[in-house]
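Worked example (supplementary).
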Amino acid sequence: MKPKVIVGKHAEKPREVLPLVRNIIAVSSGKGGVGKTTIAVNLAISLARRGFSTGLLDADVFGPSVPKMFNEEKYRPEVRREKDADIIIPLSKYGVKVLSTGFFVDPGDAVIWRGPMASNFLKQLIMQGDWGELDYLLVDLPPGTSDIHLTLVQEVPVTGAIVVTTPRKWHWQMP
Ligand SMILES: Nc1ncnc2c1ncn2[C@@H]1O[C@H](COP(=O)(O)OP(=O)(O)O)[C@@H](O)[C@H]1O
Ligand SMILES: [Mg+2]
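After joint prediction of all chains, the assembly is encoded as:
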């Protein structure tokens, strides 16, 4: 039996962008190398194993590492032409539909995506990705706050966010 989906506040009303995706969860952090991708990938696969239809969008345009985590660094998505629009077919692996900016560039070339170009590319992956019906779409973001983050919140109704941090001992002093 299919588990009950936790429906976010945006998910109840129909919307134009990704109308068949019930929850869009952003995974972010203040700095790099804290475990965003590790969390996003493992969460996606765990959700899929529990019976939720799950997608993973690697929006870390400046250092996409989802292809490596899926051991699909050479994967190049098929693009299908449908009614004057190009539809990008995600990789399906471990029960998860995956699109990464890394699928479109050779590892050393990732740095070419800058500013509006990077944002437009992310928009294409969101709008033209063949995501179908999903319970969860996880978005692995670059570290910090950038145009990519702005693009995401402007383009899609994010239903939840995970902020990954590293533990620190809190030194608090009386002023
Ligand atoms: N909970 C953890 N404990 C120890 N190492 C971790 C943990 N989570 C991730 N790592 C390691 O830290 C490094 C960075 O993780 P990654 O998920 O790529 O971070 P980010 O996406 O935030 O840059 C990787 O080598 C990963 O294996
Ligand atoms: Mg990462």
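Two points are worth noting when inspecting this output. The chain has a mean pLDDT of 88. The helical segments are 36-49, 66-69, 115-128, 147-155.
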